[in-house]
Write a structure and sequence with these properties.
Layout (H helix, E strand, L loop, with lengths): L3 E5 L1 E3 L4 E3 L2 H9 L3 E5 L7 H7 L2 E4 L23 H17 L3 E4 L1 H9 L4 E2 L2 H4 L17 E5 L4 H6 L3 E4 L6 E2 L6 E6 L5 E6 L5 E4 L13 H14 L1
Helix pairs in contact: 3-4
C-alpha cells in the first residue's frame, strides 16, 4: 500500500479558498505516495490527524508571525496567517513527539524550527550582513546558488554529495536553532538552508523548494522521504 502523505495548505483570505501548488502533489505521486491535503483550522486533534497519515510535508507560504517566537515585527515583515501558524506549529510539535516522518519545505522549515523553540531572521537582507540574494527572480525550476551539506547528515545521504544546487524564494530564515535540531545545510553566506532533528527517524527541513525542480536531482529528497517511510512501515 502506498504511504499516505499529509500536505499542509494555505488559505486565501480574499476569496476564502484553501490552496496548494500542484507541484507538491506531483512530487508525492511521482515517488510512490498518496497525497492528501490538510486544511488549516484552529480546532485540531493533532494526534488523530497524524495517526491517519504516514508522513507530513509542511509546505511553503507566507511569513510566520514573529510574536510566536517572542519578537516584535520589523518593517520588512510580509503577510502573515495566524490560523496557519497555529495549525502547522501544532502539527510540527506533535510530529516531533510522535516521531512522525516529516519533510518541511521553505516556510515549513521555519515552522519546524519555531515549533521546536527556535527563532527566525525576519528579513535576511537587512539582518545578515553580506547575505546572498535569497529571494530569487529566476524561473522556479532554476538553481540560483549552491548549498553545503554536512557530512554524515541525512541530506548528504539524500543527495549523495557534499553540495547541491537549489532555487531560492525566501526572505526569512532560521536564526537560533530549536531544541534537538541541528543545521546540516548552509548557503555560501552561512545562512542555514537545512535542519534535521537529532533523535527522530526522519524529520528534515530545507529552505529551498525541491518540488519545483522535480526534473533535477531535487527529486531525490521526495524519493528518499517516501522510501524511508516504506522502510519504517515494513
Amino acid at each position: 500500500m502506498k504511504p499516505i502523505i499529509g500536505l499542509t495548505s494555505s488559505f486565501n483570505w480574499d476569496d476564502k479558498q484553501y490552496a496548494l501548488p500542484d507541484s507538491y502533489v506531483q512530487a508525492i505521486e511521482k515517488n510512490g505516495g498518496t497525497p492528501i491535503i490538510l486544511p488549516q483550522t484552529m480546532e485540531i486533534d493533532t494526534v488523530k490527524l497524524l495517526e491517519l497519515v504516514d508522513g507530513i510535508i509542511l509546505t511553503g507560504g507566507v511569513d510566520i508571525d514573529p510574536y510566536v517566537y517572542g519578537e516584535p515585527p520589523i518593517p520588512q515583515q510580509g503577510r502573515i496567517d495566524p490560523v496557519r501558524d497555529h495549525f502547522e506549529i501544532s502539527i510540527a510539535k506533535q510530529a516531533i513527539s510522535m516521531n512522525k516522518p516529516t519533510l518541511a519545505i521553505c516556510r515549513g522549515c521555519q515552522i519546524l524550527n519555531v515549533a521546536a523553540g527556535g527563532s527566525l531572521y525576519q528579513d535576511i537582507n537587512t539582518q545578515i550582513k553580506g547575505s546572498l540574494k535569497h529571494s530569487g527572480q529566476a524561473p522556479t525550476y532554476y538553481p540560483t546558488h549552491p548549498v553545503k551539506l554536512a557530512e554524515k547528515s541525512k541530506l548528504a545521504e539524500v543527495y549523495g554529495s557534499k553540495t547541491t544546487k537549489v532555487n531560492s524564494f525566501h526572505h526569512q530564515g532560521v536564526k537560533a536553532l530549536g531544541k534537538e535540531l541541528e543545521a546540516t545545510a548552509w548557503a555560501d553566506d552561512n545562512t542555514i538552508e537545512g535542519i534535521e532533528h537529532k533523535k527522530a527517524d526522519y524529520i528534515i527541513g530545507v529552505q529551498w523548494h525541491p518540488e519545483r525542480m522535480l526534473d533535477s536531482d531535487q527529486n531525490k529528497i521526495f524519493k528518499h522521504f517516501i522510501d524511508k517511510i516504506k522502510a519504517l512501515k515494513s
